[in-house]
Amino acid sequence: MANILLFGEVSDKEISSITYELISAANKLKFNEDDKIVVALLSEVIPESYENLFSYGAETVCLVKNELLSRSNTDAFIIASKEVFDKFNPEIVLFAKTDLGRDVAPRLAFKLGVPVAQDCIDLGIDQDTKKVMVTRPVYGGSAIATLVFEDVETQIVIVRPKVFEPITPTENSKGEVVELNIELDEKLIKTKFIEEVVKESEGIPLESAKVVVAGGRGLGDAKNFDLLRELAEILGGAVGASRAVCDAGWLDHEYQVGLTGKTITPDLYITVGISGASQHMAGCSSSKNIVAINKDPNANIFNSANYGVVGDWNAILPAFLEAVRELN
Ligand SMILES: Cc1cc2nc3c(=O)[nH]c(=O)nc-3n(C[C@H](O)[C@H](O)[C@H](O)COP(=O)(O)OP(=O)(O)OC[C@H]3O[C@@H](n4cnc5c(N)ncnc54)[C@H](O)[C@@H]3O)c2cc1C
User: Fold this and answer.
1) What sections of 9-135 are H helices per DSSP?
2) Span 239-291, pLDDT tens digits
3) Ligand 1: residues within 6 Å at CB?
4) CATH number belonging to the domain at 3-188, selected among 1.10.620.20, 3.40.50.620, 3.30.1360.30, 3.40.30.10
5) Which of 2, 60, 158, 321 is deepest in the core (most CB within 10 A)?
6) Measured between alpha carbons, how far is 90 from 97 in angstroms, rounded to an integer?
7) What's the pLDDT band for 163 if we cut at 50, 70, 90?
8) What are the extents of the domains in the chain?
């Protein structure tokens, strides 16, 4: 029997959706019937909804409550995650590619002297070695590599958000709850949290929008995004952009989709004047439907698009918008 330990996250006193995504990822790694998924929640507040985790596939939920475990306190998480690790002695450890996961996972790996695989977009088990096999973008997203852990005792994996869908929960599932009391000595916390600045964003957040309408350098000017905003509003979606647009200052970088921007998985992704560079696609290739408007028939975006219109957006977009307005 092997334990798969995953570190869930708590945000605004609720269990973050990434926790459920990590359980789905862990499910792909079970290869013996008695392999067990352990979800650890380390937080200053433990939401009552932790019992729901059993319905999503957790067999054990480990709760560690301590006022020093606020999201900004990486040192406390590192100490506590090592104790959780020692308690369950897992073969596989999963973290999310969040601010917290990216901070804690490599440091835990260093403490344990084991390797860590970053930014994984798919997982599996190598049938020969029974070790974890990860798929991750390399060379700035220009290629996708599949790697297998060598013969190490512990394999630590950081999973990209929004690539695993939470499973449909089964009702009334029960499991084991382990409450760990971890003493955290304040003297061991070497960093000091000063301030968190939360930027208010308008409309639907890009990452959770079902429809995203994104523009690229081909739009030619910041003011042309007004058409995209209107289309997004009618469709109940959000506006996104390529990095070229954000670098040019037409939109803030919070709108950027891609390898160094946000990862999105909308049902519908409409792109206008975006070439579809691999670094852009790294953030949107899991969209369910991609519609592209581009005047270059050889643009890379057409390799991923389900529907494509080759032509000048100046002619296409106003007419499309008019049709959508009428339907609305
Ligand atoms: C390490 C690294 C990380 C990166 N991260 C990201 C990232 O996170 N996100 C990202 O987007 N990029 C990223 N990039 C940049 C990426 O490589 C591309 O340069 C960028 O995505 C290009 O943006 P674009 O498609 O808007 O512009 P372009 O590549 O210039 O494409 C513009 C497109 O518009 C079309 N067009 C022009 N005029 C019209 C018209 N009138 N009607 C219709 N179509 C028209 C053109 O045919 C062209 O295909 C990264 C690069 C590196 C090296």
Assistant:
1) 17-27, 52-55, 74-88, 99-112
2) 999 999 999 999 999 999 998 899 898 999 999 999 999 999 988 988 999 99
3) 140, 216-218, 242-245, 256-261, 273-275, 277, 279-280, 283, 293-296, 299, 312-314
4) 3.40.50.620
5) 158
6) 20
7) confident
8) 3-188, 206-327
